[in-house]
Amino acid sequence: MSDLKDFLEVKKCPIQYVLAVNDTLNVISGKWKMPIIASLLYGKNRFKDLQENIEKITPRMLSKELKELELNGVVVRKVYDSTPVKIEYRLTESGKRIYSVMDAMVEWGLEHRKNVVDSIT
């Protein structure tokens, strides 16, 4: 946090901050990734559970987004050798640390919405 304070005082954005923000956005950008991550944070780990928990996501889109999250090291897919085949998705340690990002986004979003609504009324 002191790095951010130093950044704000100097008014010059270090290239590492820009790269870090770009990296973060590349991993979590899109309409569905954060809802998928949120669902996994709260224990939904089977494909069907995720699909039921996230309104309006198609199976094809859920599959695509899970693959991207897996490629980016946020989600791990585990296939059990059973009949029928059981597949579970879990957050990696890196994926679990997104909780603080999500929490900050929710806090900002609630405050922002309140400010916008207050300015309209």
Automatic annotation (TrEMBL):
HTH hxlR-type domain location is 13-117
Q: Name one GO molecular function term.
A: DNA binding
- Transcription as a keyword of this entry, yes or no, is yes
Q: Which domain of life is it from?
A: Bacteria
Q: Which UniProt keywords apply?
A: DNA-binding, Transcription, Transcription regulation
Q: Which Pfam families match?
A: HxlR
| UniProt key word Transmembrane | no
Coiled coil residues, start to end: none
- The name under which this protein is listed is Transcriptional regulator
The top of its lineage is:
Bacteria, Pseudomonadati, Bacteroidota, Flavobacteriia, Flavobacteriales
